[in-house]
Amino acid sequence: MVQLWQTLLLPSLLFNIISAVPALLPSSPAIRTIYEFPNETWIENIAVRSNGNLLLNILSSPDLYELSPLNPTPGSAKLLHTFPFATGLAGIAEIESDVFAVVVGNWSVETFTTTPGSWSVWKVDFNHLWDNLPQVSKIADVTKASFLNGMTLLAPGSPYLLIADSVLGVVWRLNYLTSEYEIILESPLMQPAVSPIVLGINGIHIFNSSAYFTNSFKGFFARVPITLDGPNAGSATGVYEIVANNGVGDDFAFDREGNAYIAQDPSDGLQLVSPEGKVTLLAGNTNSTIVEGDTADAFGRTKLDENILYVVTNGGIAGRVAGTQITGGKVIAVDVKELL
Description:
Layout: E1 2-3, H1 5-9, H2 16-19, E2 31-39, E3 43-48, E4 54-58, E5 63-67, E6 78-82, E7 88-96, E8 99-105, E9 107-108, E10 113-114, E11 120-130, E12 133-141, E13 148-153, E14 160-165, E15 170-175, E16 181-186, E17 201-207, E18 210-215, E19 220-225, E20 241-244, E21 252-254, E22 260-263, E23 269-273, E24 279-284, E25 294-299, E26 308-313, E27 328-335, H3 336-339
Antiparallel strand pairs: 1-10, 2-27, 3-4, 4-5, 5-6, 7-8, 8-11, 9-10, 11-12, 13-14, 14-15, 15-16, 17-18, 18-19, 19-20, 21-22, 22-23, 23-24, 25-26, 26-27
């Protein structure tokens, strides 16, 4: 078992880049909570369907939920599937139209431990419904992995997924058609920091033929140019480089211009990092609960919410704001145009 509780709970590991910036007021109309789960529900990741509905991966239980963000009411999050022989879900990515890959594995929120060798990737297919639920099947057991975390499709139409391993500090390439997998990217920039910090690379996404990634506790956002096709698809074609020394970073989303919106659990901030590396704090800090415990985010996909960034949280489980209580994981709608 790999111990992660020190990594997530030590406040001394948080970076000063956030704490010096005042938080937006919770009453800001640009930032509003649209849904909250019961206490100690850790939402780890999010994806958006073409119909606008949100898919929510729970890390504190092996559950996948769906939520309509334009009509959220208490209890309206729909449980789609509980994955067997696992304790939580991590990354999620759309691999074909309305078909998603989900990272599943053994993780304990109570002890903050992960079990190497327990991780797998599953397919959730909304094109084939049974009793109004998607068809779910396993793609592969990734038994050589230690802690699969963020995940992205290499390119539209590609059979390859890139999956960050936060403990090994590498990126696995998984062919979701053949179930074959191998390490495709590795660099000191992906490795965990010095013990007891055991989390390295976390979120990973592709923009303009480069793989961008966060390193949670080395505290930077980095990239490397990669090839998108051929037998070496996903491999590096150039130098790994740090885009910004922006502090703690979890998962993130890109806008059309290549700006990255980075969730900062457990620093409790939401950042914008430009392609040139300029860092702007949009919301929150270590003394604010407005996006407390934010783990990932994704933009809406309909005309009504294409400028809304949906941020998911763990309610502060990994390090709550001083003087506050842990809450349920939240889905927060952030109107980025109002903040820029």
